[in-house]
Amino acid sequence: MLFIQIRSLHALAQPKRIAVIGGGASGMFSAAAAASYIQQHGLNAEVHVLEATSSLMSKVKISGGGRCNVLHDTQKPVSEILNGYPRGKKELNGLFQKHFSPSDARRWFEERGVELKTELDGRMFPTTDSSLTIMDTIRHAAEKNHAQIKTKQKVLSITHSDSDDDDRDEGYYISLQNAQKQEEVNHYSAVILATGSNPRGYKMAQELGLKVNPPVPSLFTFNTKNQNKEGQVFHNLSGLSVQDATITLKIKMEGKKKKKIISQEGPILITHHGLSGPAALRLSAFAAKEFKDMNYRGDVFINWAPSFGNAVEIEKILWPMTSIAPKKKVSSVCPLLDENGSSVIPKRLWAALVKQSDIEPDQIWAETSKKKVGKLSRNIAEFVVDVTGKGVFKDEFVTAGGVSLKQLNMKTLESKKFPGVYFCGELIDVDGITGGYNFMNCWSTGYMSGTSCAMSLEESNEE
Fold first, then answer.
1. CB-hemisphere CA count at 13 Å for 24?
2. Residue 373 in contact with residue 319, Cβ under 8 Å?
3. How far apart are CA 212 and CA 72, in angstroms?
4. Is residue 81 part of a domain?
């Protein structure tokens, strides 16, 4: 009886502790939220950030070329913003609508002195154009409320202890290698896993018995080695972009006649190695698992002028040129014009497509057969690109996959199986396209996991 009383008094004296494993965007935001709640409600609790490396928020630092694309246009309806998530759209809906919205995230930064600007493509940046503004603000918010940030803390394992263990406190024991390369074991009342795409995070989740959907790369460029060779369409076109194009992947489904079609529209950029630009990157995200299954090899189809329709419709525009401008060179006259009277296909790309259609550079419209005009129409509307591999979109790699959302309470980000274990950021099976969507996931899930975790400590004290 005396032992139980002493143990109870000890438990009351000792602060409860939250371990945030990972000092990236979501981990630090989660720590800031948890520490803020603890201070506001006068709880006897601490927040410890355990970061394996010597630096914090490394992806924040390099985002947007060092400017930090912190959010996507928060003036847009939440329903429209959710369309930027290939995976997690449905589950994020309630989180964004009722708990921590994109507008809430904007206000969070603005209330801490960060001025934000929205660019034409919807990306939001600090007016300083420096990622350090965002990093310093988040770190200050955490440290101001006494979160303890510890770097070079490599977490090795997490084990659960319940009330039946007489010699161990209830909660979680974290084994780690500290900055001095010594192994230590510490007790925590709750854990927030925020390890991003680090394989150790997936392993820890699996060791706790959670299902992890296999992570695969997302937001990558396409290598098109064959089209970039000398004499081929993309040769010497590096840096050229088409502002309104459609890129499509068609996948043959086992046991089905119709192919699965995944398509994205927008700007496409031709590079030294292949294809990039918003439309290509979005396709890589929405078809991340399909491209992985294809080993990043296969055909994609591009319509360079989607506003003019399919190949049949485009041919109806091209063929009359044989009488409208019979003496003009095909390679120098593109009749597919925008509202300003400019060709929707850049001159050099148009000339390359004409050559690809077996039309000589000096050939005039009057001497061009219907067969060749038909081939040109197909090269415009359904140009076949042989993808030979994937590239990297700058340094802003993103993964699709992670801890299955079915195992989480999406209002709190707590594990349904292990009370007291929370998840946030890229570790969970949510990913967005480029443009601020992935950070929005970090801020929202980080805020809710941190706040919910701290709140649970308050509730356990009341019990």
1. 26
2. yes
3. 28
4. yes
Instruction: Tell me how many degrees the CA angle 385-387-393 measures, rounded to the nearest 5.
Output: 115
Is a pLDDT exceeding 60 seen at residue 9?
no
Can you give the pLDDT at residue 382? 97
Mean pLDDT, rounded, for 249-255: 87
What's the gap between Cα 312 and its chain centre? 37
247: in domain: yes
Same domain, 202 and 318: no
| 412 and 336 housed in the same domain | no
Give the CA radius of gyration of the chain. Answer: 27
- Where a domain ends, among 340, 355, 390? 390
Q: Which domain holds residue 160?
A: 16-217+399-462
Name which of 137, 87, 136, 86 is nearest 108 in CA terms.
137
| Strand partners for 116 | 126
Query: Which of 183, 182, 204, 184 has the alpha carbon at shortest distance from 193?
Result: 204
Whether the pLDDT of residue 346 is over 80: the answer is yes
pLDDT interval class at 13 (50, 70, 90): low
> Based on the domain organization, do 334 and 438 belong to the same domain?
no
Share of residues in the chain with pLDDT > 90 (%)? 89
Q: Which amino acid is at 106?
A: R
184 and 295 inside one domain? no
- Six-digit token string for 8: 């109870």
Within 10 Å of residue 445's Cβ, how many Cβ atoms? 31
Instruction: With respect to residue 5, please indicate whether it lies within any of the assigned structural domains.
Output: no
Q: How far is CA 395 from CA 7, 60, 65, 219, 414, in A?
A: 50, 11, 9, 10, 30
Residue showing tokens 């990297």: 392
Number of domains in the chain: 2
Alpha helices, DSSP H, located in 167-233: 199-207
Beginning with the edge strand found earlier in the chain, give each strand of the sheet holding 183-188 in spatial order: 154-161, 171-177, 183-188
* 226 and 121 in a common domain: no
Show the beta-strand stretches assigned E in 120-189: 123-126, 148-150, 154-161, 171-177, 183-188
Domain end among 390, 410, 436: 390
Q: Identify each DSSP E strand in 178-306 by its residue range.
A: 183-188, 190-193, 212-218, 222-223, 241-251, 260-270, 274-276, 298-303
The answer as to whether 6 is a domain residue is no
Residue 347's H or E segment, with its range, is helix 347-356
Between 4 and 324, the higher pLDDT residue: 324
Residues in the chain: 463
Whether 248 and 310 map to the same domain: the answer is yes
Using DSSP, how many helices (H) and how many strands (E) does the chain show?
15, 22
Q: What does the pLDDT look like over 398-445, one tens digit per residue?
A: 899 999 999 999 999 999 999 999 999 999 999 999 899 999 999 999
Report pLDDT digits (tens) over 69-101. Answer: 999 999 999 999 999 999 999 999 999 999 999
